[in-house]
Design brief:
By secondary structure, this protein is of the alpha/beta class. It has a single domain, classed as Spore Coat Polysaccharide Biosynthesis Protein SpsA, Chain A (Alpha-Beta Complex). It contains eight helices and seven strands. Strands 3-2-1-4-6-5-7 form a seven-stranded mixed β-sheet, sandwiched between helices. Strand 1, helix 1 and strand 2 form a beta-alpha-beta unit. Helix 7 runs parallel beside helix 8. The model has no long low-confidence stretch (mean pLDDT 89).
Length: 223
């Protein structure tokens, strides 16, 4: 069974299209309402999504951990991760799932690093991060910071996540690679609009990515 986990904070105006499209491909849409001050929860529930609400904002990493726990407890064998703001096109889920079925444990949607599609600072940060993560993982990582992924639930059963906010995306790849999980990539559309803007801080978060990456260079998987 396939579950889609969608962290959301104040996305009442964006999440409808994401849920409607995602429902076509999964068995359950789980929205983690991470301390929204709008009616994100009500909109999601009206569309048939399961909603877990955090009364205060905990950040993306903690929201995902709640979703992973739910997926394990309810015996889902596959997890899809999408953003609530429209940066990820749910209609691309089939090609990620197809790649997963070729024998991969995690499949990441790799964006096109093009100045016409992505802010230059994001291109630089992504390129540096992906290069460093590739060195640590021992395999080519095309987009270390993309949060659009599908993965087998066995991955989150095996890995203990310790990072906060957006660093979990990098932590997942490094720890998964070090634990012997196979990581694949498929190209996805790069969507940056007024409606779908990244919430990553352009200065602070890249520095956090760098620190987490260097720290995880010493990670060893427990057998």
């Amino acid at each position: 069974m396939l579950i889609a986990i969608i962290p959301a904070k104040d996305e009442a105006h964006n999440i409808k299209d994401v849920i409607v499209k995602t429902k076509k491909y999964v068995d359950l849409v789980l929205v983690i309402d991470d301390g929204s001050t709008d009616n994100t929860k009500e909109v999601a529930e009206s569309l048939g999504a399961e909603v877990i609400r955090n009364e205060v904002n905990l950040g993306k990493a903690d929201a995902l951990k709640i979703g992973f726990k739910y997926a394990i407890e309810h015996n889902f064998d596959t997890i899809a991760l999408l953003d609530a703001d429209g940066q990820h096109d749910p209609d691309e889920l089939p090609k990620l799932l197809k790649k997963l079925n070729e024998g991969y444990d995690i499949v990441v949607g790799a964006r096109k690093f093009s100045p016409e599609l992505m802010p230059p600072l994001r291109i630089f940060a992504n390129s540096v991060s992906s290069f460093l993560v590739s060195l640590i993982c021992g395999t080519k990582i095309l987009d270390s910071q993309s949060g659009y992924r599908v993965l087998r639930t066995e991955v989150v059963k095996k890995i203990t996540f310790e990072t906060k906010r957006y660093q979990l995306d990098t932590e997942m790849l490094i720890k998964a690679a070090r634990c012997g999980f196979k990581i694949g990539f498929v190209e996805i559309n790069t969507i940056y609009t007024e409606r779908a803007k990244s919430k990553i801080n352009q200065i602070i978060d890249p520095l956090k990515f760098l620190w987490v990456t260097l720290k995880l260079a010493f990670f060893r998987c427990k057998r």
